[in-house]
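Dissemination and training. As part of the outreach component of the grant, students in the summer workshop were shown how a complex can be specified as a set of sequence lines and then modelled as a single object. The example used during the hands-on session is reproduced here so that future cohorts can follow it. Participants entered these lines:
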Amino acid sequence: MNSKSLGIGISPKAQTLSRRIGLWCNAHPELWVSAVAFVVSCCFLYGFGQVAHWTEGAQSTRWTSFCYWDCSWYSSIAGNGYDIVPRKELKNSANWSFFPLFPLTGSACKHLFHLEAHAATVLAAKIEYFTAILAFLLWMGPRLRTVNERFLAGMLVAINPYLIYGHAGYSEPLYFTLICLGFWALERQKWILAGLLGAGISATRIVGVVFVLVYAIVFLREVGLRPTLRDRSLRILTGLALCPLGLSLYSLYLYHHCGDALAFLHLQTAAWHHTIMNPFVSMTYSYRDHGWFRVWTVMGLAGLAVSAWLMRRHPEYGVFLALTILIPMSQGAPWGFPRYLWWQPPLLFAIFLALRRSVGASMVYFAFAGGMASFMVIAWFSRTNIVV
Amino acid sequence: MELYSGYAVLHPRVSPNYRAYYIDRKTDDWEPPHYSATPEQGIVFARSGWPQFVRNSSGFADPGSDGRWTDADRAQVPTLFMNQSFQGPLCIEMKLQPSPAERGHRIQIALGPEARDLWLSDPAPAEYRVSFDPIQPANALQFRFDGPIPRVEDVTPGIHDSRRLGLQIFTLRILSLSCRQSEYSR
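and obtained this result:
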């Protein structure tokens, strides 16, 4: 049955266009799957944002209403740059703990689209949420055999239990994007590119420095140290040296800006009273709490179990996930821990491997993820600090 | 680049106050407000800031409704750093209350190199007096505990407080005469 037998008049031009679109979709499935997943995520967010508007009185339709907690810090950097001295009105704290790459993208949006800083920061995060889904699909590419598996992978990012951070002006989507692209580059032994991406990761969040270990594990396994030194493979060693470059540059900027190259660390202990401790001791104390600390500790322990499971066949991802759990847990009280866990690509990678063979398991997982995500969206607008 | 950043880490270009508060963590106060009071009028720990004769402190939590707790997570040895030096016979009068972990324990009150023992026998807020006769001028008052202080939640089950609280101090006066003479003058 075709358009002729149906008596429908479709012009040859339209037929050519639809065939071209179909060919393009077949050639670039990651792009259109990412777009669909991103739209679904936005609809989910705005749907439950509307619920918050009706029940909590939140102004969910305004972009700036999403910008709260750490988004305020990022937008202060995007709008006015870094503080020169600590602010007494903010308990002697400053915006130095918030690494520069994400607010730079916010600043770019501010100038490109003539937005004020809060809206620009939220927009930058949303754009990076789309790139995060796309980058995850690119990284997972060789492992995705069907369109259904692509959708599963894309929706794991789009309906993340803590998807609110992808729409609220946080650095998580940019960090996620760069990590996925870094893993993608390492798997293809594109050493310089991986190093540059590592530099970007270390300029986005301090825990991004852990990417150096992933780089080292991959090059030692795939190439080896002796051959590298014997052949004086500059590309590999240059890439390795590039990984912490973002952190180095930021430290130097702070040194010239306020005199303290480690201001982002010193602020944690002095102004926010974070103490460095054994992460397992910290988790023990947090578990004893009957509140959200216990929930987050259980999440952390489950994440460590996942990292142990990954170690067998993907040790670089297992090590990365374990360290990105243990480092935030070593700061004492686990405030903000969920986004450190749920915005780690190796975790979603492990969940994909577990779900792809079972439709039933996928349904159960997405029921949990959707329920958690909806609760967090509403909690966000009630301004409770469980979503800080 | 990494070498230069290493140099920058080891050689910060900051003020002495910044270094003491943010880097060395020798004090918990960043440019604290100061109120007018003499050593004889003393320190009211429930007030924000310190009297003019106190520069800053370390090891104290933020002021509460009655006073301030010492917190071993902030400093093992809570210290008051003075803007003036004290010498000669002195009587330090304090109203303080030990935490459950410190009841019945001994603490040392140290003024410069001299130290005096104090037994925290009363679980309720109580007045304590300690005499000093420092030969050399001293400008730091320390509270030294006789062992590590456990977390509140480890000592009192059911209370979710992970701080390591030692003493709650309500008031502290420094009198320029021995404690016996100060009793007679009352």
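The radius of gyration of chain B is 18 Å. Students were then asked to discuss how this feature might be tested experimentally.
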